[in-house]
Amino acid sequence: MAPYSILVSWMQKALVVRQYHVASVLCQCAKVAMSHFYIHYDLLEKNINVKTVYGYLDDSANQEFKWGKTYLHLQPDCVAMQDATAQMAMLQFISSELLKVAVPSTVHCDHLIEAQAGGEKDQCQAKDINPEVYNFLATAGAKYGVSFWRPGSGIIYQIILENYAYPGVLLIGADSHTPNGGGLGGICIGVGVADAVDIMAGIPWELKCPKVTGVKLTGSLSGWTSPKDVILKVAGILTVKSGTGAIMEYHRPGVDSISCTDVATICNMSAEIGATTSVFPFNHRMKNLAEEFKDHLVPDPGCQYDQVIEINLNELLKPHINEPFTLYLAHPVAEVGTVAKKEGCCTNSSYEDMGDVGGNVLVNACGPCIGQWDRKDIKKGEKNIIVTCYNRNFTEIVTALAISGTQPRSKDDKKFKLEDTYQHPPKDSSGQRVDMSPTSQHLQLLEPFDKWDGKDLEDLQILIKVKGKCTTDHISALKFCGHLVNINNLLIGATNTENDKANSVRNAVTQEFGSVPDTAHYYKKHGIRWVVIGDENYGEALEPRHLGGRAIITKSFARIHETNLKKQGLLPLTFADPSDYNKIHPVDKLTIQGLKDSALGKPQKCVIRHPNRTILLNHAFNETQIEGFHTGSALNRMKELQQ
């Protein structure tokens, strides 16, 4: 009995353990050449019927299944990256000395465009500011077999939906909103750079065996109720804690009333509650070759879920607008002004909620959604409301609608051609050169980090004890994200518990307060190893490792960033008792013991030894992640695998 969701990977053993027959959605047999869409559904059906080779599992015969504990080893169909994550991903891949990516991979230029004056002007400005990065990504793509979508192509997850998603694909994206591809019944999962590089290098992708939350939809959407309101309802029920580590599977009868783009919106926004991904079953809106095999792309009757939510779409849901960073804090449209005055929050929504209010249509990019604003119309600090539709509709869509009715013409009455922003990698790249200056201030080739000496970590200085949320918005900006030395924005938005200030920490040696990056640089220069104490849903990897960090100890991690930490040789540890967070003070020095046994695959526990107290910690390393910690980074591990 299988929820359509998901992980076909689970196959044979999952049958015995949980009654999942494992829906075919993740079958490796659904081989597809990106841009060609040749899908072997017949082989997919054969594998399901004989119940032998279960799809994307790298080694189904020896795969262990313990939900929420063991790791699945999978072979995805393809990888997608945006221009911010792609910089470090391509630099790591280059350092591996491999000749070509092992799976179809794409780069999409959408993150480095800053929203300021409007679409055309902002796009031109981005090209003027970032030519070095764009040229690097284009030439590296041509060299290593990666497709390249130039600035102006559109947002990564919409391009995936329109060009690469199909029922049953397992698509991995180095962008948290990759689940948008679920609009066409795909299993599209956001990952960190380290995971993306592993897949590109042909290394099986590791995913902690997820639980499945079923969302039963009844009735149908009507009136001003939008798909956004559905996911806001789900988010209000679950919150991030309940959503993390689960796959959200929406099922009938209500799903048949929701369009592809609306389904994509729900899947996209599900990422905000920590879900691994979201998926909808095959329906009449996905008709293509998949229709013949649709019985394998829906849940089995009577299938079992770890949790079930039921939402009646006929019951009027009031249109809501949600706050930034926190999806489950949503407000009825009528209350937004009052909330903004009280809390100083900004909000986002869709075209449906805004109506025709003369909004400025900005460039097709992720700018406003990720904080890339440069507004000139208000003074800094002045309270205001930003209501954006990022990104539910595109200028391309409007153009397509115009074309469907009549052939557009330019001012001189000549037919025009839409700009071609796609670059396919050449068949022969032997003579291709990667455009990257050795003196670049934006890009820097990587060197492996130092390896672990096999000993416990003693006398670790606390760099910062973070208070409250510490998402990617609080950790890293986009400037210099391909240059570890110059990025210099480590935890600059995180609040320090010692003084309730952002980017202000005490230097334990000089006793002076300074920025987080400057203090970390000081510690690195003087050989002082350090640790970060985090709160809930924390993450970050490369810069802390580069600046001498050895461990991150938190109440909980974001899934993507926990994996990044492991693969770059940092210890992601959680408090066995979350209240122990309160026992640690910013001026403390910590010793972490028990690492040797843990790294040998023995107890999954280690401890902080501290005067007057011992604090128990958890970690969840598997064999290959332990190897990554031994070698110091994913880069070292890839080099050793090649040897």
UniProtKB/TrEMBL annotation:
<keyword id="KW-0004">4Fe-4S</keyword>
<keyword id="KW-0479">Metal-binding</keyword>
<dbReference type="InterPro" id="IPR015928">
    <property type="entry name" value="Aconitase/3IPM_dehydase_swvl"/>
</dbReference>
<dbReference type="GO" id="GO:0003994">
    <property type="term" value="F:aconitate hydratase activity"/>
</dbReference>
<dbReference type="InterPro" id="IPR050926">
    <property type="entry name" value="Aconitase/IPM_isomerase"/>
</dbReference>
<dbReference type="Pfam" id="PF00694">
    <property type="entry name" value="Aconitase_C"/>
</dbReference>
<dbReference type="GO" id="GO:0046872">
    <property type="term" value="F:metal ion binding"/>
</dbReference>
<feature type="region of interest" description="Disordered">
    <location>
        <begin position="408"/>
        <end position="437"/>
    </location>
</feature>
<dbReference type="GO" id="GO:0005829">
    <property type="term" value="C:cytosol"/>
</dbReference>
<comment type="similarity">
    <text>Belongs to the aconitase/IPM isomerase family.</text>
</comment>
<dbReference type="InterPro" id="IPR036008">
    <property type="entry name" value="Aconitase_4Fe-4S_dom"/>
</dbReference>
<feature type="domain" description="Aconitase/3-isopropylmalate dehydratase large subunit alpha/beta/alpha">
    <location>
        <begin position="70"/>
        <end position="336"/>
    </location>
</feature>
<keyword id="KW-0408">Iron</keyword>
<dbReference type="GO" id="GO:0051539">
    <property type="term" value="F:4 iron, 4 sulfur cluster binding"/>
</dbReference>
<keyword id="KW-0411">Iron-sulfur</keyword>
<dbReference type="InterPro" id="IPR018136">
    <property type="entry name" value="Aconitase_4Fe-4S_BS"/>
</dbReference>
<dbReference type="GO" id="GO:0006099">
    <property type="term" value="P:tricarboxylic acid cycle"/>
</dbReference>
<dbReference type="InterPro" id="IPR001030">
    <property type="entry name" value="Acoase/IPM_deHydtase_lsu_aba"/>
</dbReference>
<dbReference type="Pfam" id="PF00330">
    <property type="entry name" value="Aconitase"/>
</dbReference>
<protein>
    <recommendedName>
        <fullName>Aconitate hydratase, mitochondrial</fullName>
    </recommendedName>
</protein>
<dbReference type="InterPro" id="IPR000573">
    <property type="entry name" value="AconitaseA/IPMdHydase_ssu_swvl"/>
</dbReference>
<dbReference type="InterPro" id="IPR015932">
    <property type="entry name" value="Aconitase_dom2"/>
</dbReference>
<dbReference type="GO" id="GO:0005739">
    <property type="term" value="C:mitochondrion"/>
</dbReference>
<feature type="compositionally biased region" description="Basic and acidic residues">
    <location>
        <begin position="409"/>
        <end position="427"/>
    </location>
</feature>
<feature type="domain" description="Aconitase A/isopropylmalate dehydratase small subunit swivel">
    <location>
        <begin position="461"/>
        <end position="577"/>
    </location>
</feature>
<dbReference type="InterPro" id="IPR015931">
    <property type="entry name" value="Acnase/IPM_dHydase_lsu_aba_1/3"/>
</dbReference>
